[in-house]
Write a structure and sequence with these properties.
mainly alpha
């Protein structure tokens, strides 16, 4: 009997489909946007509370997904380096490598100035600041080296903002701390 079973063709395990960075970024951004939109519903907030309460009640343990929800941006935005294209349009002609260009640096400076202007204008709510900081993070990845020391600080502020409810505001002390980010550049 064991000889017959060994003659059965073995079915190789299914491998997950590989997804390119651009498609992952699009899909993850869409899912994060849906998550944020759902959390704005007062009924959902009342019933489920925050992410940790939901996970505890329903015994959900997916640390990578939890971290992604806390950061609020796709991994390709958080961890991209100057040699990983984020979209087909940004890939160079030679093998898909992306060169840091003056245009990328200028866009990063523009995003940084826009974020700092939002702080100067006393923007303090998550809804006002998170989009600017997410844009800055994405732009940094196209113009700065992967080991740029300010990256960790920006990710930490993304996490802080993402854990806030849409209408929550930074305290005056938090605003001053975020404003100190200009020293990173």
């Amino acid at each position: 009997m064991s000889g017959i079973q060994s003659l059965k063709p073995s079915i190789p395990p299914k491998r997950p489909k590989k997804i390119d960075n651009f498609r992952y970024t699009q899909k993850c951004t869409n899912l994060l946007t849906q998550h944020k939109a759902i959390l704005k519903d007062p009924e959902i907030q009342e019933r489920f509370g925050d992410l940790e309460s939901f996970q505890k009640e329903y015994r959900v343990q997916f640390p990578s997904a939890t971290y992604r929800l806390k950061v609020g941006v796709p991994a390709t935005v958080e961890h991209a380096s100057s040699h990983i294209p984020l979209s087909p349009d940004t890939a160079g002609a030679a093998g898909g490598d992306q060169q840091v260009s003056a245009r990328n640096v200028a866009e990063t400076v523009e995003k940084f100035i826009t974020f700092m202007d939002a702080l100067k204008l006393n923007y303090k709510s998550k809804d006002q600041l998170h989009p600017h900081l997410s844009d800055l993070m994405g732009s940094l990845n196209t113009s700065m080296p992967k080991d740029f020391e300010g990256r960790a600080k920006i990710v930490q502020w993304l996490i802080t903002l993402n854990q806030m409810r849409a209408a929550d505001e930074l305290t005056d002390d938090q605003s001053r701390q975020v404003f100190k980010c200009h020293f990173l550049f």
